[in-house]
Design goal:
The chain has 89 residues and is of the alpha+beta class. Helices cover 22% and strands 11% of the residues. The N and C termini lie far apart (70 Å). Bound molecules: iron/sulfur cluster.
Length: 89
């Protein structure tokens, strides 16, 4: 009996890719990368000047970072977890 169940499970697993194709599900992803410059005026490096990633969430009346998805409490500072990298001068 146990052997039958295992065979049945193997049969099902083997057909998962076909099922994905049948129902137009995502079966793989291509991944792209980009370097996006963000310019902070006069060396004032804070979220306020980050138009690319700072977003005001109307329903919550709070700011969030599009890059990380985290809430931003103070847009006058750069968050501790900010993923932007700066070139050493
Ligand atoms: S945390 Fe960094 S990337 Fe996100 S909004 Fe602030 S400065 Fe921009």
């Amino acid at each position: 009996m146990r052997r039958c169940m295992t065979s049945l499970n193997m049969f099902r697993l083997a057909h998962i890719p076909m099922l994905y194709r049948t129902f137009k599900a995502v079966t793989r992803y291509e991944t792209g990368m980009a370097n996006v410059p963000v310019h902070f005026p006069n060396g004032d490096v804070c979220c306020r000047w980050c138009p690319m990633f700072l977003r005001f969430e109307e329903p919550f009346e709070r700011y969030s970072c599009r890059l990380t998805g985290d809430w931003i409490a103070d847009i006058g500072a750069r968050q501790e977890w900010c993923p932007l990298k700066f070139e050493e001068v």
